[in-house]
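Quarterly update from the structural biology core.
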Amino acid sequence: MDLHSVKARFVGSYLIIILILAAQLPVVYVLIAGMSRKYTQVAEAASLKKRAVEISYILNRHIMNGEEELEKPFQEMKGDYSRLIESLQSGTKDIPPITDPDILKKLNAVKSKW
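Predicted structure, tokenized:
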């Protein structure tokens, strides 16, 4: 195959494009892995608000209506809420620990009020 032929130039162009795309794969993998770790933290932090609303609803029903059977679910949900805050601070096998000092300060404020 002649080096200056059209066929050789097409093959060379395709090889260069394939090499450029292949070189990007590790970078994309690292970015996606980092984003997925952050996503689990964000999802768990978002569930804190939902859980707080559910707990306050159960507590209000327990107090206002005198429904004593809601005491046990309230205590269980309260324990789960505290464990979730601690797992966000210290990390678990599924959730990496939060290291941002501002966010840790806010989590400590929520934990102290809880």
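Residues 37 and 96 are 7 Å apart (CA to CA).
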